[in-house]
Amino acid sequence: MKEPTTRMNDKCRECRECGGEAALHSYKHVEKVGRWTVTNASSMAWQCRVCRAPQLSLDDLQNYQLRAVKTALCEGKTEGGVLKYARKALGVTQKELGAIIAYNHETVSRWENDKDEMPQAAASALVGVLCRAIDGETPEEMVETARRIKEKRPGDETGGELVVLPSRKKSNCA
Ligand SMILES: [Zn+2]
Question: Is the Cβ–Cβ distance between 107 and 113 less than 8 Å?
Answer without folding.
Answer: no
